[in-house]
Amino acid sequence: MMKLKRFTAISMAFLLILPTTLASATSGDSSSDNNREAKAGTYSEKSEVVYANLSANGEQEEIYVVNNFSVDQHGNLTDHGPYTSVENLTNLKEIHLDGNKVEFEATEDQFYYQGNLNEKPLPWDINISYKLDGKKVNPEDILGEDGKLAIHIETKKNEKADSVFFENYMLQISLPLDSEIYQNIKTENGMIANAGKNKQVTFTVMPGKEESFVVKADVTDLEMAGIEITGMPSSMSIEEPDSGEMTEDMKSLSDATAEINDGVADLNDGISELNEGAASLQDGSAEYKKGIKELDSGSSDMIKGSEEIKNALNQMSKSLESGSGEDNSANLNELKSGLQQIAGGLEETETGLSQTNQLLGQLIGNIPDYDISKAEIAELNRSNADSQVINQLVETYKAAQTVRTMYFEGNGEKQPAIGPSIEKTVKSLQKLKDEIDGIVKSLENSDMNKSMQELQQGLSQLSSNYKEFHSGLIEYTGGVSELSTSYGELHGGITDLTDGTSELENGVSELHEGTSELAESTRDLPDEMQNEIDSMMNEYDKSDFDPVSFVSPKNEKVSNVQFVIKTESIKKDDDEQENEQEEQEEEKGFWDRLLDLFR
Q1: Is position 551 within any domain?
Q2: Closest CA relative to residue 281, chosen from 484, 495, 485
Q3: Membrane-spanning regions, if any (predicted)?
């Protein structure tokens, strides 16, 4: 019924235009014989619009070209292309196709004709695939289905076509989607826009690029209009952005990186010197530790010898007291000899003790008298140095300062300075030796009895003084022993410090290598960034592109070539649609149906 109505309407329209058509056809036939005799025409420019139909999967099917000429002078024109057939779209005059040459008479300012192609490849390979609920399906199997739909669109360069269009043309891909069918439309690289009550998803492919896109949606009773793909020259001139401020920032970054590298280089030199100093400190500390240990080991012998001297003096003093009034000439000679031996022992003790104290003073004096504040230590902790190494440095510094203070200054009355105490002891020994030498001398030059009395008094006083010296010597050796034990811990800290500074030097050295590479890589960063901007600008700026014909290189004055590509729609066939329309028609009145014939 519907087909009959359409046929009636078409027949009526055909009868109305038939006389005009016959007259035009007759006129065209009569003028065709004179077509080749007409003068040659000229045109200012030519444009081509390439129309291509693809299957729903993207396979190329039908392709034709609409050629448009801007005619300057009416007359015969020649065009070229591997057409299978041609059709005049301007008037009813005949167009001649001879191989790849097309000849026609242009009698209008704008002349159009269509050329049909057979196997001319498009510049792009377009592949379209579909997944329904995660399973790949053929497009003909998804009509009317429900579920989660994913449409995959992939564009690649067609190696069989002229690459000039792929390199200089951009593609715009549009998917019109009915909002009653498609819900929850999602895509990552496209733009979703409203098109009336429907949605339109659009993708852009830049010149020379191969892309892949995905559209996902929930569908109900699936139908789909054809995907529209437009290819056009990217001839717009892209204005280069003002990168002056950006390059200036990059230059500041490059300069700052260079300054950081210089700072790290200075830090590396300082840490290297610190490590060398720590190594020297460790060597000196090892010698000092060895000396103080030897001194501590000899303390027992020193105490023993002093004890013998004390006992000898005490015995001599008692002997003189018990033997007063007797002839002690022989004993006096023995006493003189014994006193001379004691004086020699005291001299050796004095010399050894003085040399030991001098060595101690030199070693401990080598400890730097730095005054490092808490603020400076806190600042060091906030740096990027190893916290363990910092703690070792601080502990070693404090221990070294304690040793230095105890040796040179002491800690009040309870703990007098070690160095001055030793010097005082040496002076006491010297005084004792001088007293003994005086006694011996007096024995040689004085009256025997008188000398014995003086000797008795001198030895008694000497014995008493020596007891005090002996007590001081015991305290001294106790201090040396304690110092030897404490210094062992200090030396262990110095050793840990040396190991830590060595690791720190290695770490800072690696850091310096890294900052050097960073400084080297960022040195030319401003120029590299500008070159990259220029490269990107050159990649997408196709303003100097000269259009060429899609169908034949022989065609001249081509001003523009465009591609209009559309895939096959996935819709119900005409019979199903007509049945639905007939059902709707039955609901219309007589006048509505009559008016529809002429709409």
Answers
A1: no
A2: 495
A3: none
Q: For residue 446, is it within any domain? A: yes
Query: Is the entire prediction scored with pTM above 0.85?
Result: no
Q: 509, 527, 545 — which closes off a domain?
A: 527
- Among 365-379, 438-452, 462-476, which is the least confidently predicted range? 438-452
Domain match, 264 and 208 both: no
**DSSP letters spanning 443-470:** HHHS-HHHHHHHHHHHHHHHHHHHHHHH
Q: Same domain, yes or no, for 401 and 253?
A: yes
Mark which of 504, 527, 550 sits at the end of a domain: 527
- Neighbour count for residue 29 (Cβ, 10 Å): 12
CA separation, residue 497 to residues 46, 85, 367, 401 (Å): 86, 94, 14, 15
Rg (CA), the chain: 57
Does residue 190 lie in a domain region? yes
Left, alpha or beta for 125 (phi > 0: left; psi -120 to 50: alpha)? Answer: beta
| Domain boundaries, position 206 | 125-233
Residues 212 and 150 in one domain: yes
Reported confidence tier of residue 7, pLDDT bands at 50, 70, 90: very low
Examine the domain organization and report whether 315 and 420 are in the same domain.
yes
Confidence (pLDDT) at 96: 95
φ, ψ of residue 210 to 5 degrees: the values are: -110, 130
- Cβ pair 97, 85 in contact under 8 A: yes
Per-residue confidence (pLDDT) for residue 17, from 0 to 100: 39
For residue range 62-121, list pLDDT tens digits in order. Answer: 999 999 999 999 999 999 999 999 999 999 999 999 999 999 999 999 999 999 998 899
- Phi, psi angles (nearest 5°) of residue 78: -125, 135
